[in-house]
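FIELD: query
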Amino acid sequence: MRIIAGLARGMPLVVPRGSVTRPTSDRVREAIFSSLGDRVVGASVVDLFAGTGALGLEAASRGARSVTFVEQNRAALQSLEKNVAEFVRRGGIEPVVVREDVFRYLRAASSCWPTRRTARWPSNYSPPVCRRTGWCWNRPNANRWWSRRRGR
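FIELD: result
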């Protein structure tokens, strides 16, 4: 596993042993970021269920303005913190690492987000976490969750 492009291109990523995380493969990340194109440059990114931080670090390497990682698992956090430290050492931005349950983090963060009826969940990509939570966290489900939180 490595960063594919940008400032930290070729940087190897530390991955925890066992099945603690399922890091997004190089091929999948390349497809995601090819489809996003220049929209990553200057963006604020939140990497939910961050694991190794592969998606967020790839975004930062490609020019994201800020990155926040949300991860609860201790083994994954150790790998994530090592990867972030190496990324910063290579001259990248300093991301924020939050040790928190993703759903608790989203509930707290949602109190700061717009309350207008037209507010929608920001464009996002987050890998499915069906096995871990029993519920796939993807854009359609995120929009339904966001709508319920906003009382629609």
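FIELD: remark
The CA atoms of residues 27 and 109 lie 31 Å apart.
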